[in-house]
Amino acid sequence: MTGGAIIMMIIAMVIVWGGMIGAxxxxxxxxxxxxD
Length: 36
Fold this sequence. Notes:
Blueprint: H1 3-29
């Protein structure tokens, strides 16, 4: 792979994994409570 492709792959992985980790942290700090 070229250098540009590797950089784009790393940026995409940071966006996807960072969003997932951020969502997990947010849910563990403020869990959704079911409404009755």
